[in-house]
Amino acid sequence: MKKILIKDFGSDDEVLSPLNPEDLLPIPGENLEDIKFKKIKPETLAKYDFSLDGFSALSLPIPQTKEEEEAIVNSFLKGLEKLFVKENNWGFLQPSVLSTEYCMQCNTCNEACPIYVESGRKDIYRPNFRPEVLRRIYKRYFSTSGKLLGKWVGADLELNWRVVYHLAELVYRCTICRRCASVCPIGVDNALLSRELRKIFSQEMGIAPENVHRSGSMQHLRVGSSTGMNPVAFKDSIEFIEDIIEEKIGRRITIPVDKEGADILLIHNAGEYVSWPENPAAFAILFEAAGLNWTLSSDSMGYEGVNYGVWYDDVQFARVALGQIKAAKKLGVKKIVVGECGHATKALVSIADRLAVGDLAIPREGCLPLLESIVTSGKIKFDPSRNNFPVTLHDPCNMVRLMGIISPQRNILKHIMAPGMFREMPNCGVDNYCCGGGSGFAVMNTQNFPNWRDNLASRHKARQVLEAFKDCLDPSIPKYYCAPCSNCKGAARDSLIEHFGFREKYNIIYAGLVELMVNAMVDIPEPFISWEEEF
Amino acid sequence: MDSLTWFISGPLLYIAVITFVVVTGKKILYFSSMPRHLRWDLYPVPHQGPEGSKYQKVDFSKLKPQVHLMHELWEMGQEILFIKRAFKNNPKIWKSSFPLHAGIYLCAVWMALVICGAIVELAGIPVYKTSPSTLAVVLYYATILCGVAGAVTGLAGTIGLLWMRYFDEGMRDMADFITYVNLYLMLLVFGSALLAWWNVDPGYNWIRSHTMSLVTLKPVAPDLLIAMEIFWFSVFLLYLPFSRMLHFVAKYYFYHDIMWDDESMKPGSKLEQDVIASLHYKLNWNAPHITSDAAWVDQIPADRKEEDKK
Ligand code: SF4
Ligand code: SF4
Questions:
Q1: Is A107 in the pocket of ligand 1 (CB under 6 A)?
Q2: pLDDT at B305
Q3: How far, in Å, is the centroid of ligand 2 from the Cα of A174?
Q4: A133, A190, A397, A398: which to mutate for ligand 2, most atoms within 8 A of CB?
Q5: What percentage of chain B carries pLDDT values higher than 90?
Q6: Which phi and psi angles does B65 have, rounded to 5°?
Q7: Which of A30, A190, A325, B306 has its CA 20 to 30 A from that of B81?
Q8: Is pLDDT above 60 for A280?
């Protein structure tokens, strides 16, 4: 395999570190020779940069003149300088400075990274590789010792447009799952530095993945949702969900919308309404049966729970988070509960906590504890024998490693699953692996990036799922991969089901936790989960 | 020659100690005075104790902050003394990294014992194997034990790490020039200490009496090997606060101020005041979607008018 050293990062090879199917670590039953990456048309190759690993997440246009090349380098340097100025980056200055200065290059983080390991251990995917590029550039251009002594103080990387482009792409080869940070003996956070670098590209250079920025957070702020759903379409979708509920349980429920003064404002990832409407339907059934005083909001910032800013841009992050909080204030609800979406939960409940000053400090929490309280309160009767099929649980990084929400979902499963049917994956809890859709990957669908994501980023999850179901892989046994997170479900759909073919080969389906809960409700005449219709 | 060894073992050492204290102090002040960052916790957070994260509870914001000091101390103790995370996640490097760190700790204890011994001697009690004071005898042997064990384990750890930097492909590829500078410096510090002990100072009496001269601000010129030992130690002290080897200070902030910082926003709190002040910083990011040269609070669009929503 081609060795890539940091100092070679700006080399003008056609592809610096090509990822080939045969490099990947095969999962059981997989033949790597069957993997075919999408062929890129010559005219596309001539226009956009694919030179990092043969893939493009950003559709970066290849500069045509010396001036354009210089402009790329200068703009990057300006952004890099701003990253360490408190006025520009107060929200993450301390973590950034510390992680930039104190890595000892012990490589402990390497084996924790599913992308590095599953790629066949390619140098560029080492968690500490991209931060080290950042460090060496910073030293070379912003420290006196680096300017004077160069390589003798570790400043041995000359900047050119290729370094900038390679780095821009490389920060979108990390899911920001922070598994590497959790094993670092010092506490250095390579995931944070991936995000900080993404901020330079977005906040200074205007570079971000199309689906994350322009048709993502910008669209969210403009029309109300990154799905493009405006408030009118949202209200229509609620009617559609009421229809689904009627069809499934034989009676109609009126979903409360814009109910002022409700105890709970429930905000879903709006992708649920579009792709998995059974999920908000199941929430409505449970909340109604538990007698909760709740509502949805049709305010343009009140029905979309996602916050893509959390992946790449602090300004977008703050705009979305504060918009969501203000929508809740308008309705006068007592608290916000975020549905089954990991990044949305972390963004609004945890990270945004330090933006919620003054009267914006409205309580916000994830849905899992509330769902657990519904189960343990006895308000709804569950019959665990209705969930008499093998189930494994995916731990969304954002909820588990980054928020410590571990026991509620397990306690729920204990109450609603037939004995012996729930099995943990290897490496569960805070030690979990990302689904492969983290940090925006699940929605990034331009160029050939989905090939990279489905083959590599989700590979370890596929391995874990097979391991969890290894005693019942026979397709005559239906199996359920429970992922209480919209992005993780997106990754499951695109990778586990469509790419790896788990539905066809092993009869594994995927969905959230609430669907399993409703499926076990004694008051529901027919099974809520129908194996034929599902997905 | 005497004046050179005198300079090294007196003024240079004083300068090194003062530089180390001042620069490290300044770094600590710098890290401590940075703006409060947004939440970036990483779980488990030990002071939350056996019940774990508050986020697992309904209405968690009404609960009191969880403070289980013993859990935190236990976790910190394992990390500081045994480098638990490296032991768990990278046993290969731990086999060298742990002896290196243990060597540094033992040498720090040795230094404290040498200073104690100097003070005891200044008080008129000889620190020697035949001393009339049992405590002084214990001090004498403890100093030898810590000094020798520290230098030997430190040296072994350093050699182990150097070996990995040369012969482990991944470790070599990710190292920069400074990595080698740091390790060779450690090699010189531990190596010169062992050399001086073996050749001229098996009971550490020389270094103790030299410390007496330093404590009384009347430094004398010691033996050449001891001067060398002091020289490399001084270089180490002068260099340490500017290098990534200061990670032992940074580690405190990584753990307490980032991974384990779970303080919630409370109206009227100091945290809230700090954040409000930060929100008024003017940013100058340049991308088209950002209003440059405006404050963070002004980036948040005002509530949109009804007609915009249609
Ligand atoms: S980030 Fe941490 S674990 Fe990774 S190389 Fe640096 S110090 Fe080691
Ligand atoms: S955050 Fe996750 S994907 Fe990114 S480098 Fe670390 S372990 Fe790998």
A1: yes
A2: 41
A3: 5
A4: A190
A5: 93
A6: -60, 145
A7: A190
A8: yes
Question: Average pLDDT, stretch B55-80?
Answer: 92
Contacts by A68-75 with C-beta closer than 8 Å and gap 24+? A68/A161, A69/A160, A69/A161, A70/A161, A72/A161, A72/A164, A72/A165, A72/A205, A73/A159, A73/A160, A73/A161, A73/A164, A75/A204, A75/A205, A75/B286
Nearest by Cα to B222 from A317, B91, B212: B212
Quick check: A430 and B60 CB within 8 A? no
Written as one string, the DSSP assignment of A13-48 is -SSSS---GGGSPPPTT--GGG--PPPPPHHHHHHB
Q: Is the CB of A175 under 6 A from ligand 2?
A: yes
Give the pLDDT of residue B304.
43
Rounded mean pLDDT of A140-163?
87
Asked whether the beta carbons of residue A128 and residue B288 sit closer than 8 angstroms, the reply is no
Interface probe with B: pick from A353, A367, A412, most Cβ of B within 10 Å: A353
The domains of chain A are located at 6-204, 214-372, 379-519
User: Which residues of chain B lie closer than 8 angstroms to A206, CB-CB?
Assistant: 286-289
The string of DSSP codes covering A106-146 is --TTGGG-HHHHHTTS-GGGSTTHHHHHHHHHHHHHH-HHH
Chain A hits for B36, Cβ within 8 Å: 354
Q: What is the pLDDT of residue A533?
A: 59
Mean pLDDT of A503-510: 96
How confident is the model over B199-226, as pLDDT tens digits?
999 999 999 999 999 999 999 999 999 9
pLDDT above 70 covers a percentage of chain B that reads: 96
Tens digit of each residue's pLDDT (9 = 90 or more) over A157-210: 889 999 999 999 999 999 999 999 999 999 999 999 999 999 999 999 999 999
Domain B2-34+89-242, CATH homologous superfamily name and number? Transmembrane di-heme cytochromes, Chain C (1.20.950.20)
Phi first, then psi: give them for residue B239, nearest 5 degrees: -85, -35
| Ligand 2 touching residue A191 (CB < 6 A) | yes
d(CA A394, CA A375) in angstroms, rounded, equals 20
Tell me what the mean pLDDT of segment A457-476 comes to.
98
In ligand 1, the atom with minimum distance to the C-alpha of A104 is 7
Name the token pair of A296. 């949805």
Chain A: closest CA distance from residue B46 (Å): 11
A471: Cβ contacts below 8 Å, ≥ 6 apart: none
Domain ranges of chain B: 2-34+89-242, 37-82+247-268, 280-308
**CB–CB of B41 and A230 under 8 A?**
no
Distance between the two ends of chain A, CA-based, in angstroms? 39
Residue B310 has pLDDT above 50, yes or no: no
- What pLDDT is stored for residue B2 in this prediction? 84
Confidence of residue B302 (pLDDT cuts 50, 70, 90): low
CB-CB neighbours of A133 under 10 Å: 24
The H or E element spanning position A376 is helix A367-377
Atom of ligand 1 nearest to the CA of A108: 3
Which ligand ends up closest to the CA of A118?
Answer: 2
ipTM score for this prediction: 0.94
Distance A113 CA to ligand 2 centre (A): 5
In the chain, the amino acid numbered A75 is: S
